[in-house]
Specification:
alpha+beta, Glutamine Phosphoribosylpyrophosphate, subunit 1, domain 1, Rossmann fold, six-stranded antiparallel sheet
């Protein structure tokens, strides 16, 4: 997986010097490429399109891709303090990067994670070494093992809400730096950028939001794609078609356009994907998923980071896309991931509640009230009641729909978690780029979904770049029956893995309830595979870390 590894030590500590030598050897053998070596610090990178680095000032190293913000101010970075330097970057630069701040001897002191969070930052101390890395590889853990334990309360919370990634880590002993924060290596941190702060200064005019969206999206897609021939994942839905339309408008070459499907008719979106590819002028490769027999090895292979991976639990698609990209020879694959949160696809009465907060009487006369009622299939009276109740117990002045969008954007960090696809190709998610996140956070929810049209603003702005069928389309491919079928075909493994696993042992899941769900008829008629696979991902993560703690 694309990322970085760095560690520092005291040259006066013989044991730490020996530990550093062992870790460096292990890292090089594991596929890391050395980009910097000092008497007290080592830095390596790896993965498809491994991150580049540069030193903008003494004691500071930037790792990753950095671009000028489309709304950047004038002047250069303020180098007076680390906080001022990182703060300037958070306002005037964007990309996929981290900033390392080091002492005069090269010792790691602080780190800043860019607001998009595309490169993770995990840190711990072991054997006299201070380690920071974007991905926790087995070789690194074996050479410098962290002292970890499970926070079972947090594990229980993740079992209930797998995409709630805003809280504390479920694994103690390893520091994880949230996006937009400057952290000391001892774990103390300060927010230099936060979605709440951005959302607190909303764009007042819908016309400005419309005009800015096209400009900012083209900027992000253009710089992330570069001038090389790349691949793009085209699902047949709106979000990937918008990314594809930008590539076409910018004249960027596409070497490989990929669409995947399951065996059920409701998963087959080739018609829409073909129309999007034709509009782009790109050849479309359509691949059918092959059934995969579930195993502990397959799930645990992507479960090695301090947070459980939700990105690799769809095993069939993960394996298929990785193989297809390797076969096509592309080193970067653009996706439409993150678009649901960015453009506001969530079906919720809060899309009206936010307008109510801006002006109750005016909202009653707007098209938003009947529009959201149709969209959510609820009565207008129910919407008004929800809007009135949403003001109670509010922790801040943010409207409830915007608060919901922030949670969805934060949950999108799961798209950066470990998977086989990211081992094979550089996965790039333009719709999760910082300038676009800031645009979405500042745009009021009623403007994002005008008159209750989900992603309505985006549909209007990019209508001239989209096939009419996709611009009008309200739904998307449905994989629920497919996942239920896959779970039913793998029931012997799932029963043994979950019912006799650590989640059941620690009573994180109700064993009797899970046993009842793991039934072929229940899966066929009631579903539930999504929740089952989320539990499998969590179980795989626990078992992987249990094995590491035992030195297995």
């Amino acid at each position: 997986m694309r990322g970085f590894l760095t560690f520092s030590w005291s040259p006066e500590d013989p044991a730490a010097v020996r530990a550093a030598g062992r870790l460096k050897s292990a890292a090089l053998e594991d596929g890391w490429t050395e980009i910097e070596r000092r008497p007290a610090c080592w830095v390596g990178v790896r993965g498809p399109n491994p991150p580049k680095s540069y030193a903008p000032r003494t004691g500071t190293l930037v790792i990753g891709d950095v671009f000028a913000h489309p709304d950047a101010g004038s002047g250069g970075a303020d180098g007076e303090t680390d906080e001022a330097f990182a703060g300037w970057y958070s306002r005037n630069r964007w990309g996929r990067y981290v900033i390392l701040f080091r002492g005069s001897d090269g010792a790691l002191m602080r780190v800043f994670r860019d607001p998009s969070g595309s490169l993770a930052v995990h840190g711990w101390r072991a054997r006299g070494l201070q380690i920071l890395t974007s991905g926790v590889a087995d070789a690194v853990v074996a050479a410098a093992p962290p002292k970890v334990a499970f926070d079972w309360d947090r594990v229980r919370a993740l079992a209930e809400r797998p995409f709630d990634l805003a809280g504390p880590s479920p694994l103690t002993g390893i520091m994880t730096v949230p996006p937009g924060r400057l952290a000391d290596v001892d774990g103390r941190s300060m927010a230099l950028w936060s979605p709440e702060a951005v959302a607190a200064t909303p764009t007042r005019r819908a016309a400005d939001a419309r005009r800015n969206l096209r400009r900012i999206l083209d900027h992000c897609v253009g710089v992330l794609s570069g001038r090389r021939a790349i691949g793009i994942e085209i699902s047949g839905g709106l979000d990937s078609a918008i990314v594809g339309g930008a590539l076409s408008a910018l004249g960027r070459p596409v070497a490989f356009a990929l669409n995947t499907r399951g065996p059920h008719a409701e998963t087959d979106e080739r018609r829409y994907a073909q129309e999007a590819a034709d509009l782009m002028g790109a050849p479309l490769s359509c691949r059918a998923r092959a059934a995969v027999a579930y195993s502990a090895e397959l799930f645990e292979a992507t479960a090695g980071d301090p947070w459980p991976s939700q990105n690799g639990r769809d095993l069939e698609n993960d394996l298929l896309v990785a193989a297809a990209c390797l076969e096509a020879g592309v080193d970067a694959l653009l996706t439409g991931k993150g678009g649901d949160a960015l453009f506001f696809q969530m079906h919720t009465p809060l899309a009206f509640a936010d307008l109510w907060r801006r002006g109750p009487l005016r909202s009653l006369l707007s098209g938003q009230l009947p529009g959201v009622a149709r969209w959510t299939r609820t009565s207008t009276w129910s919407l008004i009641r929800t809007a009135r109740e949403s003001r109670r117990g509010a922790a801040d002045d943010l409207p409830p729909g915007k608060r919901m969008q922030i949670a969805a954007i934060t949950g999108g960090l799961a798209y950066y978690s470990a998977c086989r696809r990211s081992e094979a190709v550089d996965m790039i998610h333009p719709l999760m780029a910082q300038p676009l996140l800031e645009w979405a956070l500042r745009t009021p929810v009623p403007d994002l979904a005008p008159n209750g049209r989900e992603r309505g603003l985006a549909r209007d702005v990019f209508a001239d770049r989209l096939p009419a069928s996709i611009a009008r389309r309200q739904g998307k491919g449905d994989y629920a029956a497919y996942f239920n079928q896959q779970a039913a075909q793998n029931l012997p493994f799932l029963r043994a893995y979950l019912l006799d696993g650590r989640l059941a042992e620690e009573r994180v899941i109700d064993r009797a309830f899970m046993e009842a769900r793991l039934d072929e008829d229940v899966l066929r008629w009631q579903g539930g595979a999504s929740e089952i696979l989320a539990a499998v991902s969590l179980e795989a993560w626990i078992r992987r870390w249990d094995g590491r703690r035992r030195g297995a």
